[in-house]
Amino acid sequence: MSVDGWVTIFAFAAILTLTALPLGRYLAAVYAGERTFLDPLLRAPERALYRLLRVDPQQGQDWRAYARSLLLFSLAGWVLLYLLLRTQRLWDFTGLNPEGFHSAPWSVTFNTVSSYLTNTNWQYYAGERTLSYFSQMAGLTVQNFLSAAVGIAVAVALIRGIAARSRTDLGNFWQDVVRTVLWVLLPISLVGAIVLISQGVIDNFSHYLTARGLTGLTQRIAMGPVASQEVIKLLGTNGGGFFNTNSAHPFENPTGFSNLVEMWLVLAIPAALIFAYGRMVRSPRQGYAIYATVMGMFLGAAIVAYVAEAHGSPAQHAVGLHTAAYVGSSGGNMEGKEQRFGIAGSALFDVVTTVTSCGAVNSALESFTGIGGAVPFADLSASEVIFGGVGSGLYSILLYVILAVFIGGLMVGRTPEYLGKKLGAQEIKLTALGLLITPLAALVASALAVATRAGRASIDTAIAGHSSPQAFSESLYAYLSQANNNGSAFAGYSGFVQPLAGNLGSHGIVFADLLGGLVMLFARYAPILFVLAIAGSLAGKRPSPAGLGTMRTDNPTFAVLLIGVIVLVGALTFFPALLLGPVAQGLTSHLYS
Amino acid sequence: MRSLARELWSAVIAILAFTLLLGIAYPLVVEGIGQLAFPGNANGQQVRSHGRLIGSKLIGQDFALPRPSARGGALELVPDPRYFQTRPSGTTPPDNAAASSFADYGPNSTVTRAALRANIAAYIRLNGPYYPGGLTPAEVPVDAADTSASGLDPDISLANARIQAYRVAAVRHLPLARVMRLIGRFTGGRGLGFSGEPAVNVLELNLALDHLQAGDGRSPSATRRGAERGAREAPARGGGGGGR
Predict the structure, then answer these.
(1) Structural domain count, chain B
(2) Based on the domain organization, do B176 and B188 belong to the same domain?
(3) In this structure, are B136 and B225 located in the same domain?
(4) Are B105 and B191 in the same domain?
(5) Is A209 within 8 Å of B46 when comparing Cβ atoms?
(6) Is the same domain home to B187 and B87?
(7) B98: contact with A, CB 8 A cutoff
């Protein structure tokens, strides 16, 4: 551990908080339809889009109409992306497939498309060996934007439902998506992409380079339009890397500074949305309380991961390596980490991307120590509410808030009410269902994956050993990650066998591809429907003024209750499974073969 | 509620319009700005010498020589002692920048232990004879034993570079202080003063060493002409790609 490491963690938290406050004000203005500084530039293209889509943005939608628009939009996106990826060679005329890559097998494409639509970006493939530049741009980049926009739209709809006084509609889905893309995602992406290029992220349409090194060896170097996709991969908490090694690749994340920028991009919108929420329900303190709750849990996760990784791994100690930091060496578990990021930059990045639904990595999660690797597990077990994905993080934590209010109400013996709205049996049922869907999908799929022969075919025993806790960890993490729409992975669980670059002779492992794809779709859209239903139900209720006995939801007591509920639900659901994998691994210095 | 057909129309048109805007126009704009404002970065910080592409400043490479295997048959690669060596790589072959990949070594695995042992032994075999008092595993910096994440790490730690400096100085008949000074010149600092670790760029360092010995001490990136002269006069290397 080093001073710089600690400074990295706390300075990052401070920078994030200070920038999220004004960004939150901006977001609140955008979704309330108030004037912003970008209006003169964007009003005209906005109107043109509405005319093209033949929608009236003023027409409010109830939750059913909102959900129908969302599902149709997602369906159209799914079909188009599937067609684009399956016809990769058809687009060679654009000149954007310099390596002549073929399409991946259908099952892998099914998994990939479901993955990008649901903001998961789970990847069974290696980008630079599989995808043309055209597929990366016109296919994946587009869904990086749109899946993020859909997540934010759902969160905004829920906020409107909670905040509603006289209106009963949830706003207009098309307007929310268009404004999210034009006012939020596109401007930040343009600026962010230029900043990343200034650090060394590449952006070109060249052929792969062939270099001859100083000792005469040839080296082929993959190229591509990376920066434009990199920035939205992070900003939209998508996480699907242009290259196989994601943000560990020097062309995706070239410097210590770019590492900081990338972490900020991941958390910027999820953090700002919390503040925007407070403003939109006319009580900024509600936002501060939630922010303090998740920031506390975030810092806890980052500290545990940093200490564990700085300590080094059992394998390192077994061979006599000196893992303490000294002048000129970061020390610690540098296995699967890049020199320019060091221990703190790697541990913090992976906490940032697993608490959100981003799932990008700048180091190899499977090489993290047992405890360091358990942190991502714990983050996922908390159902992605510690900041969470763009939009999805906020609507998920609001479900926990409703649950905490309900439990608190039971304790004090009063009808639970949140921001003046009484929570009835209907809302609590929907909340419980919304919260249990994800663990249900994750655990059932993991069980299927380890209990069936077809599922075990995906476990790489060369990495984990045959009967080691890590073999179980890999499977559990795969479905936990896909069910939470995260997309990070403990490598070693594979659904794609690709002997050569370009997909000739490759085949998918159909069981893992299909199970994963279905889990992602189910665990994304089912909770969205529950959330919209809750929003619709709350929108119709008339708020009553707070009285003396009303439980406050904007003070430290409630924050503690909220943490308790989140930890309790996560622990009760996942503890048995976690004991078998990462905890067993972290408690032993035994090496498995 | 609007009819299903009208909603479907909106959905299809929306997805097509967004594909044009976000999938075609936006990447083209970013590419255009990148190529105008930062052409070097946008194209991967290519390092050229005498018109020949040597590599990328950001991508680690394997500074190894092909040598007939002792067991006969195929050529094997051995580290070139004149050059600083990059970190262990998990790609096949090492530092394959067309197929980046993690090494996937778990923390509790005997496979990892074996890999670490092999990396440490190779490092000590290469550098131990030149290091005052020899090297023990405890003295091997973690970044020299542990595999990098991308398999393409262009950097090594300062501790790692300082140990290798003894070998490089001895093999090249250079004063140690001179090599140490060069290391300092190619060491990147932390972002904003705290983010990340100091890192020594191995390709730039090795290229500068070649130029130094070719009688041109200027930085390779500072002057193209110097770089070209340096490459022309650099010592013979590696049998031109190793023959067949």
Answers:
(1) 2
(2) yes
(3) yes
(4) yes
(5) yes
(6) yes
(7) yes
Three-class SS of residue A307? helix
Distance CA A212, CA A220 (A): 9
**What residues make up the domain containing B169?**
46-242
Q: Hey, are the CB atoms on A212 and B34 less than 8 Å from each other?
A: no
Q: What ipTM was reported for this prediction?
A: 0.94
- The reply to whether residue A462 touches residue B111, judged by beta carbons under 8 angstroms, is yes
Same domain (yes/no): B19, B65: no
Chain A residues touching B16 at Cβ < 8 A = 80
Residue A128, token pair as written in the block: 């630079």
**Cβ-based contacts of B239 with chain A (< 8 Å):** 216
**How many Cβ atoms sit within 10 Å of the Cβ of residue A231?**
28
Chain B residues 208-237 within an 8 A CB cutoff of chain A: 210, 234, 237
Report CB contact under 8 Å: B30, A68: no
**In degrees rounded to 5, what are phi and psi of residue B147?**
-75, 145
Please choose, from the candidates B58, B47, B97, the residue with its C-alpha nearest in 3D space to the C-alpha of residue B211. B47
Report the distance separating Cα A264 and Cα A269, nearest Å. Answer: 9
From B207, which residue of chain A is nearest by alpha-carbon distance? A214
* Cα gap A314→A307, rounded to integer Å: 15
Query: Nearest by CB to B100, which of A61, A128, A585?
Result: A128
* Whether B127 and B216 share a structural domain: yes
Please answer yes or no on whether B237 and A215 come within 8 Å at the CB atom: yes
Of A215, A257, A336, the CB nearest to B65: A215
Give the DSSP per-residue string, A336-391. Answer: T--TTTHHHHHHHHHHHHHHSS----SS-GGGS-HHHHHHHHHHHHTTT-SS-STT
| Per-residue model confidence as pLDDT tens for chain A (593 residues) | 888 899 999 999 999 999 999 999 999 999 999 999 999 999 999 999 999 999 999 999 999 999 999 999 999 999 999 999 999 999 999 999 999 999 999 999 999 999 999 999 888 888 999 999 999 999 999 999 999 999 999 999 999 999 998 778 999 999 999 999 999 999 999 999 999 999 999 999 999 999 999 999 999 999 999 999 999 999 999 998 899 999 999 999 999 999 999 999 999 999 999 999 999 999 999 999 999 999 999 999 999 999 999 999 999 999 999 999 999 999 999 999 999 999 999 999 999 988 887 889 999 988 998 888 888 888 787 777 889 889 999 999 999 999 999 999 988 888 889 999 999 999 999 999 999 998 999 999 999 998 888 888 888 766 656 567 777 888 888 999 999 888 888 777 888 888 888 888 888 899 999 999 999 999 999 999 999 999 999 998 988 887 777 888 999 999 999 999 999 988 888 888 888 887 787 777 777 76
Going through A98-162 in order, the beta strands assigned E by DSSP cover none
Question: How many A-B residue pairs are in contact by the CB < 8 A criterion?
Answer: 455
Inter-chain touch A585–B108, beta carbons under 8 Å = yes
Please state whether the predicted TM-score (pTM) of the whole model is above 0.90.
Answer: yes
- Write the CA distances from A133 to A91, A228, A323, A364, integer angstroms: 10, 12, 41, 25
